[in-house]
Structures are given as structure tokens and as C-alpha cells.
């Protein structure tokens, strides 16, 4: 039985894949860029992808301290791009250099996903619904340490609208149970 078509239809209409049973299988397409840290400029890859965003950037962040990435998101918001962030509340509370409060103070809507032991996703979904849609994922936290001290990986996958929609549907699923961030620590 081909389970891909019902899953694709569910994704197109925003239905949840929770309990769908089988992992989503998509044909390979588009381009992939990879960066490994320390050494490769993973943060620069993220910043450049955000600078190219035209419609939307959906972010899921476990730990978020990288000021250049945060600034790129704020700049995108000022260009009229819909930028939204879901963050892990425990990491935000523990991180003295977390940029989450700053993002919210700059007008970026932020939600805290406290539904799980850890909101451990490190994802950006850019311009879903377009041929140039992009997904950024990997072990790379959006942090200074991930760029300069940790052994991390980052993938930038472009030109695969169905993949971007799968990640956007997952983002929306987490947004439903997340609480709005309301300043302070």
C-alpha cells in the first residue's frame, strides 16, 4: 500500500502526522549545503539563508545565543518577512546570553514549548509554499558555542517544497501547545 499520498494530502491541509505510524518518505530533489563546526561557517550559512527570505521564517530553537543569527531574523522582520520563533523554556532560563527576550523585544513573536522534556529541534523553515523553500536543520544550535567550540553539523536543504511543508507542519504542531513568551526571564 502506498502511504505517501495520504501523508502528502495531510501535509497540504495542515493535518497532524502524529500517530501516522510511518515516517514520511520523500523523493530527493533540490540542493543540499552542509557545514561542520568548528571550521565551516555554519552561522554564516544560516544568516545568508535568512537574508534571502521573502515571505516567512519559522524557527525552532533549543538554545539560541548567536547574535548575528538573531539580528538577521530581526532584519527580516523589518523587511516584512513573517518571522516566528519557538524556543525551549529551560534552555532560555539557563542561558545568561539567550537572545530570546531580545527577539521578542524587537517584535518577533516567540513561543515557549514546555510540552516536552526538551524542545530540542534546531530548525528554520524558510518561504514554504514556494519553489525556493528551504529547511535548515542538524545538530547546530543557534549559538556562538555551536559555531566555534562544539562539533556540530548543519544542513541547508533548498528547492524541495514538500520537505519544507513537512517541517512547517511539524512547526505548527508544536506552536499549538506552546505558550507565548512574555518578556523577562
Walkthrough of the structure:
This protein has an 8-stranded mixed beta sheet with strand order 1-7-6-5-2-3-4-8, sandwiched between helices. It has 7 helices and 8 strands, in the order αβαβαβααβββαβαβ. The relative contact order is 0.22. Helix content is 36%, strand content 22%. It has a single domain (43-180), classed as Endonuclease, Chain A, CATH 3.30.870. The model is unreliable at 1-19 (pLDDT under 50). The N and C termini lie far apart (50 Å). Strand 2 (56-61), helix 3 and strand 3 (82-87) form a beta-alpha-beta unit. By secondary structure, the protein is of the alpha+beta class.
Concise account of the structure shown:
With 185 residues, the chain is an alpha+beta fold.
